[in-house]
Amino acid sequence: MAERLCPRCCIALAPRYADAWRIDGCRRCGGLWLGHRELAGLGQAAAGCLQALEQAFKQQMNAAAGDQLCPECGTAMARLELPCAPGIQLDGCPRCHGIWLDDGEMEHMGQCLAEWWARADSVAPVKAAAGPAPADPVRRRVRQAAAFLLSVPCPRCGQANSQAAPVCWACGAVLQIRRRGILCPTCDRALVTLEAGGIEVDGCRVCGGLWFDRGEVRALTRLNPEALQYLQRQVGTAEGAARVGREQHASLLCPVCHQVMDEHPYAVQSGVRIDVCQQCRGAWLDAGELEAIQRYLHTDPSFTQWLAPAAENRQ
After folding, report:
1. Residue 100 placed within a domain
2. Is residue 183 exposed (0-12), middle (13-18) or buried (19+ Cβ within 10 Å)?
3. Are 146 and 190 in contact, with CB atoms under 8 Å apart?
4. pTM for this structure?
């Protein structure tokens, strides 16, 4: 494969992220190249996951080419704009359909994601709590790009929307009643939606972890043990994979807002520590931790609440 060059600096791009995917980036300006193959990989080849981008490319078929060249095929790139996010312009290759993201564009994407959920909640955007910065900032940028660029069709009007959007930009239909996790905090694989006892959660079939929107942990611990065992069987019990993932990443990123999550004890005597996002109040449980929590709740007669106060305050 020919050497890829930064469209801005004209120096060779280098692998900047090679855990679940290979992403090429520029050491000088910080830009990232997401080729069509990499974007499809981020979406795990989900049907329609690049629909919004394909529509944006079609709309720009006759647009004037810019002066930046595609790192992959050398074609002059054009400016693109997704209908769901007017005002955020991207550099895209009309030939190979890759996307170049610079620092400013990635920052705007992160702001857009926060504003979408703030509008859905009718509150001001929550500023990320002070805490450790991610050990790998490129990893967070790639995850934010996946949440922003990958798309799902609106069930009412069929228009393509960002996977992270709570409502349809075209008709206003609600797309997500709950905040759906997109990428696993531990191994960065695509999460799948699971159901147990009428409650939906997101799980990783590689490491066995589970993502819970605000309040879902409390609801699930009330289910009978058989329902929880069925839920865990759907994702497996890959505690070993979860440990490897934690060793690779000093901090876990929220599957929804991609901020660094804080680790807290579920209860002092439970021996279980869960990861909670201070922005969206969701919680991540590694493989086996949900069952451990339920065992604790059913064996400690003095513990009458379904969720430990410390975790409750943070969820």
Report:
1. yes
2. buried
3. no
4. 0.74
Domain that holds residue 96: 14-162
Q: Answer yes or no: is 201 within a domain.
A: yes
Task: Indicate whether 182 belongs to any domain.
Answer: no
229 backbone dihedrals φ, ψ, rounded to 5°: -65, -40
The one-character DSSP state at 267 is: S
The 10s digit of each residue's pLDDT in 178-199 is: 667 778 898 888 888 888 888 8
Q: In this structure, how many other beta carbons lie within 10 angstroms of the beta carbon of residue 11?
A: 13
Degrees to nearest 5, angle at CA 53 with 42 and 150: 30
* Burial environment of residue 108 by CB neighbours within 10 A (0 to 12, 13 to 18, 19 or more): middle
Q: If you count them, how many residues does the chain have? A: 315
Tell me if 184 is assigned to some domain. no
Per-residue pLDDT of 86-139, as tens digits, reads: 888 889 999 999 999 988 888 888 888 778 777 666 544 444 444 555 556 778
Q: Left, alpha or beta for 166 (phi > 0: left; psi -120 to 50: alpha)?
A: alpha
